[in-house]
Every structure is written in structure tokens, then in C-alpha cells.
Write a structure and sequence with these properties.
- An 8-stranded mixed sheet has the order 1-2-4-3-5-6-7-8, sandwiched between helices.
- The protein has 11 helices and 8 strands.
- The two termini are 30 Å apart.
- By secondary structure, it is an alpha/beta fold.
- Helix 1 runs parallel beside helix 11, helix 2 packs across helix 3 and helix 4 packs antiparallel against helix 5.
- Helix 3 links the parallel strand 5 and strand 6.
Length: 265
């Protein structure tokens, strides 16, 4: 794991592969370990991949003050600057998809192509009304770590995928591999609830692919349709029977789509 100085903080990241630059932006309560080594390795065949952690995550400095999604987008710009990348292909999922939206709206010259996964654009046509977050908050209120992990697993992955109990063990190992403080998660949630990029997305000219699973209980599938409808020329790819963490359930297909979209092959 390496660090890059951004806004007085040192944000952590991992890097894999070689080729055109690809920036991965994780979601709420996420960290670089949740991309999974299999998915990163698949992407690394074609890209110079950097998966960074948001402020306050995995050693990325103490965070006490509220922030917005736009602030996180400026962090992403700082990562690009720190890496010496003038631009990059960008994949953002969930909260990271919101960050990617703000990034391409505010700094279109920094985004070569855009993939937005399981994400939300704003209240005018979208909705954060999935049952998953409520399930997870209810479990968290018990302060029982095992219940919280099980609730997170069930909320983020489809019934078919999680039928294999070995996948739960892999999920727990990944979740616990890095620290994401509860106060930071609360601040991320506040930022997500205030997010609204609906108006700005009409001006996006980057080639855009939107991916959403039909069994997503965290950000419901109608949001995928909404996001794709807002961006000129955007293509929507629907994963039937797949949950929120679509790249966990379909790593090879997701990597294939990113490669085809960004590189045309």
C-alpha cells in the first residue's frame, strides 16, 4: 500500500498492472480491499490501475468536519495530480459513483472514459430508498459485530451468490482488512444524502457506461436507469440476478466491460 499527499492528508492506495491509467473510486464504508484481488488482477492485464481510499479510511488521516461529494471529487483530482496523471479512465461505484459524477462535471478534461456502477444521481428522478441501508443500520445499533457483518453481506450480495457460505468468509476477510471508522461512515452518509448532480450530467461528454444489478438492495435498480438517462449517449448494462457488489459476483464480465468501454477491445 502506498500514500499520496492530498489536501494535507495522506490518502492510501494500491496499484496494479500497466497500460492506460484507470482510477477506481470505492463506495460508502469501502476501501481498496473491497475491490478484491481477482478483479484488480483482471483489470491489471490492460490498465495501470490505482484504487485509492477516501479521506479518513485505511489510515487516510483523521476526519472530523463534514464534507460533501464534491470535496471527495477534489480528493480524486488530488490523487490524479499526485500520481502525475493528467487524465484517466474512471470507475466509480455507489458513493464512488457519485464522486465520479462530480469529478467529470467539474473537471471533464481529467476523465478519459467513465463507468458508473450501482450509483445515484440525485432526488429529481432518483431515490435512496433501498432496504439494505436500513437493515445494516439496524444491525449496527446492536453493536454486535457478527450481526453487522452478516447484515452487510446480505444487503450487498444477491441471494444466489451468498448461498455459498464460503463467500461470507471471503467477504468478512475483505471488510476487516482495513479500518473504516464509524464516524467517517456517518459523514459519508450525510454527503451521499445531499448529493445532486442531475443538472450537471446533461453536459457530460465523456463516453459513459452505467452498470446496475437487478437484485441491488442498497441503491435500487431504477437509479441505474435514471443515471443513464441523464448522460448523453450513456449505455446501461444490467446484470440480472446480481446485487450491489456486482464486480464481486461477476468479476470477469465487469472487467471485460470496462476494457471494451475504455479501450474499444
Amino acid at each position: 500500500m502506498a500514500v499520496v499527499a492530498v489536501g494535507g492528508r495522506e490518502l492510501t492506495y494500491v496499484r496494479r498492472g500497466a497500460g492506460e491509467p484507470l482510477l477506481l473510486i470505492q463506495g460508502m464504508a469501502g476501501h481498496h480491499g473491497l475491490w478484491g484481488e481477482e478483479f484488480l488482477s483482471l483489470l491489471a492485464r490492460d490498465f495501470d490501475v490505482v484504487a485509492f481510499d477516501h479521506r479518513g479510511v485505511a489510515g487516510g488521516g483523521r476526519v472530523d468536519e463534514p464534507f460533501g461529494v464534491r470535496d471527495l471529487a477534489e480528493d480524486a483530482v488530488g490523487v490524479l495530480d499526485g500520481l502525475g496523471w493528467e487524465s484517466a479512465h474512471v470507475l466509480g461505484i455507489s458513493l464512488g459513483g457519485m464522486v465520479a459524477q462530480e469529478l467529470v462535471v467539474a473537471h471533464p478534461e481529467r476523465v478519459r472514459s467513465l463507468v458508473l456502477g450501482c450509483t445515484y444521481a440525485g432526488p429529481d428522478g432518483g431515490a435512496l430508498d433501498g432496504p439494505g441501508p436500513v437493515r445494516m443500520m439496524t444491525a449496527a445499533a446492536t453493536r454486535d459485530v457478527s450481526k453487522s457483518l452478516r447484515a452487510g453481506y446480505e444487503a450487498n450480495l444477491s441471494p444466489e451468490f451468498r448461498a455459498d457460505e464460503a463467500e461470507f468468509e471471503r467477504f468478512v476477510e475483505a471488510v476487516l482488512s482495513e479500518q473504516v471508522p464509524a464516524p467517517v461512515i456517518a459523514l459519508q452518509m450525510q454527503a451521499a444524502l445531499q448529493h445532486d448532480s442531475v443538472a450537471g450530467l446533461a453536459d457530460v461528454r465523456a463516453s459513459t457506461l452505467v452498470i446496475h444489478g437487478t437484485e441491488d438492495e442498497m441503491i435500487t435498480p431504477k437509479n441505474g436507469d435514471h443515471v443513464a438517462s441523464l448522460i448523453p449517449g450513456a449505455r446501461l448494462e444490467v446484470f440480472e440476478g446480481v446485487g450491489h457488489l456486482f464486480w464481486w459476483e461477476r468479476p470477469e464480465r465487469t472487467a471485460e466491460l470496462v476494457r471494451e468501454h475504455a479501450l474499444g477491445r
